[in-house]
Here is the input.
Amino acid sequence: MRFERCERLFGEDFKKIREAKVLILGVGGVGGFCLDCLYRSGVENITIVDFDTFDITNQNRQIGSEAVGEKKVERLKSLYPKIEAIECKITKEWCETFNFDRFDIVIDAIDDLNAKVQIAKKAHKKLLSSMGSAGKIDPTKIEFTSVWKTKIDPMAKKFRSLLKKEGFKEDFTAIYSKEEPRVKNMGSFVGVTGSFGLALCSKAIEKIISQ
Here is the structure.
């Protein structure tokens, strides 16, 4: 049976995993690996949202990127047929109107900081948010912590600042790396970006089981 080994590992909790409703915002280098991990772990109800098309420069780190020029959500829907795929640009305005209530877990794997703030405001109670994974080569420096306790990462610093400006005082879990970025010009390594995605999957399953 396909998920026999997952059932052996999780026991009675596997039913929770099967029934969980997970939203992944952004399916690039981080979100794509998170999707693959959740799908292979037995989560049946996964919704992905993205607007981009695959580019040849994505091929060093993104699942499905062999389909250059194809919409990411369309390609991933063909690889993971059971998912719900929404082709939409994730902006602050879109987040303001989108209904997050039907999901048990919300995974933010996007780069737009204004949209990330709005996601936090609407879904912080069930949110896992990814900070910057580019420019780094050591996956052992990856950690989960409160968004307010992130450090070193430049994206996390800007994110915290925007949250404060918005008067946001709640808390949620963020994944970040303590490694100093080696470059500032979009360099990336799948050993880190993929590890972010796999770690997000693991944390999501942990939260699902604990609920």
